[in-house]
Amino acid sequence: MTIRKATLADLPHLVNFNQAMALETENKRLDEVTLTAGVRAVLENPQYGFYLVAEQQGEIVAGLMVTYEWSDWRNGIFWWIQSVYVLPVARRSGLYSALQGKVEALAAEAGNVCGIRLYVEKDNHVAQQTYIKNGLHESHYLMFESSHD
């Protein structure tokens, strides 16, 4: 298995992963034009974040995105893990653990990361157990939003 930062060549895989994840977790169909532009924006603008992909035998089988949130309280940056997707045939093989491990290693290298966070659907108990198994814990914060899409 190889874990690496995604490049523009990975755009179609990342778009497909995001579409599959939205459909699977929220029964939501994402607009492909908007989604493609959004993924491309991250790949072309590292200040927004980055994607990691996992390859097995030359095939991309998993990916995730990391975005940034400045914390004035901590004078540091939280890294948010988002858009996690592992192909169904590759699940339960340690891919998410490897991806999170790479995120943690990159955060340690960056030196100004004060924490790693993610959010998960309230009913996605399988994913929640995966995150707990990998050392993450439930935050004491609730998430609220105002959506404009």
TrEMBL record:
Keywords: Acyltransferase, Transferase. Its EC number is 2.3.-.-. InterPro entries: Acyl_CoA_acyltransferase (IPR016181), GNAT_dom (IPR000182). Residues 1-149 form the N-acetyltransferase domain. Coiled coil: none annotated. One of its GO terms (molecular function) is acyltransferase activity. Signal peptide: none annotated. It holds the Pfam family Acetyltransf_1. Gene3D superfamilies: 3.40.630.30. This is GNAT family N-acetyltransferase.
